[in-house]
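Throughout this chapter, every protein is written as a compact record of paired, labelled lines. An example of such a record is reproduced below:
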Amino acid sequence: MTTYREEDYLEAILHVVNRKGYAKVTDISKHLGCSAATVTEMFIRLSDRGMVNYEKYGGVTLTEKGRNIGTEIDARHQLIRDFLLVLGVTNEVAEIDACMIEHRVHQETLDHLQSFIVSFKDDPKIRKKLANEHG
């Protein structure tokens, strides 16, 4: 079982690693808006739990376990954000709310959100709105 904070870190690491192949303390510190010391502590914790490969003063990469969790959280985030965008919430608010909701929503709810979003993506106005927000 992972904590919400661990999930946030795994999702952030996933984004940075997908962009540049590895993540450094400074990358995640900027991404999450926290201190380098806090990031280092979490890297050690995630490494001890088998979710990242961490080298002191080096970078961090995700293990298979960490990548699976990070990918699942990221997919939840995207689905919830898309749902909120369909409702007309601004992108900024949708991002903030998705970050909070992604950790607490039940899988049954996610399944229904997915069905809802899929049906609405056929609507040209909705497709355009989602495309504009995804940039």
In short: The first helix runs from residue 4 to 20.
